[in-house]
Design a protein that fits this description.
alpha/beta, Rossmann fold, seven-stranded mixed sheet, two-stranded antiparallel sheet, 11 helices, 9 strands, 10% strand, globular, binds thiamine diphosphate, binds magnesium ion
């Protein structure tokens, strides 16, 4: 049974995540108009927002400790915030600054915080094998740490996910897989890629428990995750949880969503898991003043992180090839890195995420 303290914590995480992303939108759009120029402004590159996914991050991560591992996909902010990733350094990373979590080299899809064992990746389902590895390490070290891999419903036909389920099951590993089902993989609706509408059924093929939560109700997620994390910590193996969330925004900032029916967008806007949780708080006797105070505290924290990040120095160009898995092309040492723009060399890192 969820306590009022836990309800308040989840609410704070969720409003922090929502406000954080609203503020990122403001910052992201600076310099990108009138014709959308994705490389311009203080946050260059793609930005995938998780507004509408908050209940899954908060409802799961509230059960985790710093020594538990979380891997997240390309839509990571709500999960990172709920896992306790340093908000200032995460924001500096998103702004490409030198003091960012990855020294400004990763951007918003490649946040890595070893202090709380958090990582994310733009490659879908990529986080599943490392989460299984972290769970195997915890088991071999005889600790009761667990690992959680978050992924989207569009990633659950990937081999990496299915192989991870198998390894986790056969070795009884302390890992929880959390599928965030927002019905879309970019512009592809779920029913065009699979006949299995309940993704939790994938668990049956690996003889592990599978739970589907049909609404983005933070309390329902909390309860399912409580059981799954406890089961993992107690040495009883993995669980697959699928949560119905909703995508309130486009796939990425700048997505005109021409493929998406108006009714679907309206439905996503009407189902607000944060408002639903505020109602839960009220029914537990928390006053509107208390709720406002939580929200204000969250907003202040976000503003502080954004102001701090914007004051941080840009990385030095000479550091471009430090701490990365590539060697500089021959000319880079002498031409300041301009050679990296040539096709086919180490600078060609583009791609559709
Ligand atoms: C292995 C791989 N294939 C394709 C892509 C391109 N891609 C980026 S996001 C995405 C769809 C992801 O959908 P889903 O997993 O449902 O997550 P959502 O964006 O809905 O949160 C795809 C295909 C990728 N990043 N990685
Ligand atoms: Mg999806």
């Amino acid at each position: 049974m969820v306590s009022v303290t836990d309800l308040r914590t989840m609410y704070e995480q969720m409003v922090t995540a929502r406000h954080y992303e609203e503020r990122l939108v403001d910052e992201y759009l600076v310099g990108k108009q009138p014709a959308f120029d994705i490389s311009a402004g203080p946050i260059p590159g793609e930005l995938h927002l998780a507004a509408g996914h908050e209940a899954s991050g908060a409802g799961v991560c509230i059960h985790l400790r710093d020594d538990d591992t979380v891997t997240a996909p390309h839509r990571p902010h709500h999960i990172a915030i709920a896992k306790g990733v340093d908000l200032k350094r995460m924001t500096a990373e998103i702004f490409g600054r030198k003091t960012g979590l990855c020294r400004g080299k990763g951007g918003h899809m490649h946040l890595f915080d070893p202090d709380v064992n958090f990582a994310c990746s733009g490659i879908i389902a990529q986080g599943c094998p490392p989460a299984v590895g972290a769970a195997m390490a915890a088991k071999k070290r005889n600790t009761d740490a667990v690992a959680v891999a978050f992924l989207g419903e569009g990633a659950i036909d990937q081999g990496g996910f299915l192989e991870s389920l198998n390894l986790a099951a056969v070795h009884d590993l302390p890992v929880v897989f959390v599928v965030e089902d927002n019905d879309w993989a970019i512009s592809m609706p779920k029913d065009r890629v699979t006949d299995v509408q309940n993704g939790a059924q994938r668990a049956d093929g690996f003889d592990m428990p599978g739970v589907r939560i049909d609404s983005d109700d933070a309390v329902a997620v909390y309860e399912a995750a409580d059981e799954a994390v406890m089961r993992a910590r107690d040495g009883n193996g993995p669980t697959l949880i699928e949560v119905q969330v909703h995508r309130r925004m486009g796939h990425f900032m700048g997505d005109a969503e021409g493929y998406r029916p108006e009714a679907d967008i309206d439905r996503a806007e009407q189902r607000d898991s944060i408002e639903r949780l505020a109602e839960d708080l009220r029914s537990h006797g928390v006053t509107d003043d208390d709720i406002d105070e939580i929200r204000e505290r969250a907003h202040e924290r976000v503003e502080e992180a954004i102001s701090w990040a914007k004051e941080q120095p840009e990385p030095d160009p000479e550091e471009a090839y430090e701490n990365v898995f590539t060697n500089p092309p021959a000319q880079a040492a002498t031409d300041g890195g301009a050679a990296a723009d040539a096709p086919g060399d180490a600078g060609e890192t583009g791609g559709d995420n």
